[in-house]
Amino acid sequence: MKKSIISMLLVFAALAFLVSCGGSEGSGDGEASDSRGIYGHVTDYDTGDDVANANVQLRPSGETALTGSDGMFEFRNINPGDYSLTVSKAGYRDLIDDYVITVENKMVRRDVQIANKCAKNHCGTHGTCEARTVDDNYNCICDDGYFNEGYMSSGKCVSPCDSNPCGNEVCIATEYDEYECGAVFPECGASNKTPCKYDGYIWSARARQDLDWNSAMTYCDELSEGGYSDWSLPSADVLDTLNRYGASGNIFGEDDGYWSSSSCDQGAISLYFYNHGQDCDAVTESYSVRCVRW
């Protein structure tokens, strides 16, 4: 009987000891400190997608954490108090979240969204958005023939020619709100009878033959053709673009020698289309002339 009583007393003593030990553990705040902190989810403002590798900073303590592939972050084992978050990531606008998160004895959740600088169609269909690294803005890189609206690097890429202001003529945009109208030029060829285009240049309708160099310069300067009066004698390099290398003659089917505006020691450079050669001739020599504009 005494043994039974002693055994029961020992069991009760052991239970009392275990209860006592359990009550003495912890931080003194009722919960372990590693279960006290802030966690949350960072998502894209426009798409709702998770934002991985975003930098999350606690204010005022300055502690930082990176979001995982699921956009989640957490700060554990922090002191009780009031906190706020700052979130940043390349290509996104920095978020300074002024919401006050009060931490006491548990994990507190705070979800935030950050805005991609190029998420919206800021630049239009003819521009590419490029996020700046020095501020929260972006640049619009415009396609050829399109310009930043308002002369701002972040302006939408527009062209005054989109509204077809020239009717049946060619519209050439020179600024986001300025343009020029011109004739529709055919591709140059052997049967050409009007001004034509080739390799980015506009060429006069017909060649003029047997002119000395000074007369050739004057002829092109005074030429009025196709509604234009800004013709000039082509340089040797520009004239050479008419060559058909591998075949005799130029794209007009001409084999003559032609004057260029390029000077040389003895006078000016002439180009021979029948053999694609160049020579330096006295300006008193007579050659053919074809004028150019661009």
Provide an overview of this structure.
This protein has 294 residues and is mainly beta. The chain folds into three domains: 34-114, Immunoglobulin-like (Sandwich), CATH 2.60.40; 127-182, no CATH class; 196-293, Roll (Mannose-Binding Protein A, Chain A). The chain has helices spanning 2-24, 213-222, 236-240; strands at residues 37-44, 55-59, 64-66, 72-76, 81-88, 95-103, 107-109, 112-114, 127-131, 138-142, 147-148, 157-158, 170-175, 178-182, 196-198, 201-203, 208-211, 257-264, 267-272, 277-281, 287-289, 292-293. Strands 1, 4, 7 and 8 form a four-stranded mixed β-sheet that branches. A four-stranded antiparallel β-sheet has the order 3-2-5-6, with no helix packed on it. A hairpin with a 4-residue loop joins strand 2 and strand 3 (64-66). It is rod-shaped and about 100 Å long.
Distance between the termini: 121 Å
Tell me the helix content: 10-25%
Give the domain tally: 3
| β-strand amount | 35-45%
Average pLDDT over all residues: 85
Sequence stretches where pLDDT stays below 50 over 5 or more residues: 15-32
- The CATH topology label of the largest domain is Mannose-Binding Protein A, Chain A
CATH superfamily of the largest domain: Mannose-Binding Protein A, subunit A
Taken from the alpha-carbon principal axes, the silhouette is: rod-shaped
What is the level 1 CATH name of the largest domain? Alpha Beta
Q: Mind telling me the C-alpha Rg?
A: 40 Å
The main pleated sheet reads as: 4 strands, mixed
What is the tally of beta strands?
22
The SS-based structural class is mainly beta
Task: State the CATH architecture of the largest domain.
Answer: Roll
